[in-house]
Write a structure and sequence with these properties.
Shape: globular
Structural class: alpha/beta
Distance between the termini: 9 Å
Order of helices and strands: EHEHHEEEHEHHEH
Helix content: 40-55%
Radius of gyration: 17 Å
């Protein structure tokens, strides 16, 4: 099994990179674990407090469960990946079964902040993008997918997203084996990554 970590700031284009990698590899060969599924359940808090949570701090994540699930996949067993809702800031009672595959991609803004999680990764990729580009994508995503207005998105960006990026996410870039500027728009970077993945898979066989 080849485990690939893909990190980068909010709105950097990680999802596009993950999708393109999955498209380049044989169908059914890739499983994806999203950091967003592993946010700690906050159902015990009032809704107002839940909506004010800082999702850009490592403490918001259940790294213990993510690491456990990744180790389970590594030994050839399936897992039940949690389902997290940004609208209610709670973990659903439902889950998604993930089967072990030849390639497992772990993606998220904070995945390189955990030393234990990094140790499980064979390849670590950091998707880089200009702050202005990331902000534009965050505004569009949060309005469409998370029901927030522009003012709320901008306030959250200044209060938590930007400072947490500078404190935790940007410094984690030093752990990357490969940095891809401009995310999924970087065709050369994607092609280099594809070649690295194929070579690494062949070496493991």
């Amino acid at each position: 099994m080849l485990i690939i970590g893909i990190a980068g700031g909010t709105g950097s284009g990680k999802t596009t990179v993950v999708r393109k990698i999955a498209e380049l590899l044989p169908k059914g060969q890739v499983a994806i674990l999203s950091q967003d599924s592993y946010y700690k359940d906050s159902g015990h808090l009032p809704l107002e407090e839940r909506l004010a949570l800082n999702f850009d701090h490592p403490d918001s994540l259940d790294f213990e469960l993510l690491i456990k699930d990744l180790k389970t996949l590594k030994v050839g067993k399936s897992i039940q990946q949690p389902v997290y809702s940004y609208l209610t800031c709670t973990r659903s009672e439902e889950s998604i079964e993930v089967l072990p595959h030849e390639v497992v991609i772990v993606e998220g803004i904070l995945i390189f902040t955990s030393a234990a999680l990094r140790k499980l990764m064979d390849i670590k990729i950091f998707v880089d993008a200009d702050a202005d580009d990331r902000l534009g994508r965050v505004i569009c995503r949060d309005i469409v997918e998370r029901g927030r207005d522009v003012q709320a998105v901008l306030e959250r960006y200044e209060k938590t997203v930007k400072p947490m990026h500078l404190q935790f996410i940007e410094p984690s870039k030093r752990y990357a084996d490969l940095i891809i500027p401009q995310g999924g728009h970087n065709e050369v970077g994607i092609d280099m990554l594809r070649a690295i993945i194929e070579r690494t898979i062949s070496m493991k066989q």
